[in-house]
Amino acid sequence: NAGVMQNPRHLVRRRGQEARLRCSPMKGHSHVYWYRQLPEEGLKFMVYLQKENIIDESGMPKERFSAEFPKEGPSILRIQQVVRGDSAAYFCASSPGAETEAFFGQGTRLTVV
Amino acid sequence: GNSVTQMEGPVTLSEEAFLTINCTYTATGYPSLFWYVQYPGEGLQLLLKATKADDKGSNKGFEATYRKETTSFHLEKGSVQVSDSAVYFCALLLRGSYIPTFGRGTSLIVHP
Question: What are the Cα distances from residue B10, in Å, to B46, B79, B93, B103?
């Protein structure tokens, strides 16, 4: 059973470009979470999704950021018109349901130049 | 609201020293508690967990006991190794909730 798969592992974008981060949850997991980790800071919750639904996006910036988890395929975190402040590690986690631990992917490290 | 507070890092130890990383929490209900470890350049891995008061989670020589009276879940290890150098995150998950709440993480550096 493969773990949570994120790609790419490293992504470099110029200011103003779009960044697309992909996350395939563990088999059998229908809950996906996205977190952002800035250098020297902890994990900041961004968004929680179940298949085809956004359940909680309270941690997501209102502009430029969006997330989806379609019926088929991976979850996507999309950042439009990236700025230098978006440079961070973005982690995806998945779980099979409530009250169970989340399993993390290895992250995508976004660098905006 | 729910929150997790961890001791500030970095914690710097010599090999074979005793480790304690403090974690306290505030929660509106009765959470499950977790410790995750993040090695350099990697994602978080679950290290141990406890789901109710007085439970002790343990793994790879690490232990933590769920103390309801002090709302704490301190991580301990009797003899650390250089390979334990990593960032350690304490987290809670309320019953009926889906979203874990994480502390800021504590960096551990172990010298030979």
Answer: 20, 18, 25, 14
- Residues in chain B with CB shorter than 8 Å from the CB of A41 are 104
**Do residues A34 and A47 lie in contact, with contact meaning Cβ atoms separated by under 8 Å?**
yes
pLDDT < 50 stretches in chain B: none
Over residues A63-111, the pLDDT tens digits come to: 999 999 998 899 999 999 999 999 999 999 999 887 778 899 999 999 9
Chain B positions touching A105 (Cβ under 8 A) are 43
Please enumerate residues of B whose Cβ is less than 8 A from a Cβ of A. Answer: 32, 34, 36, 42-46, 49, 89, 93, 95-105
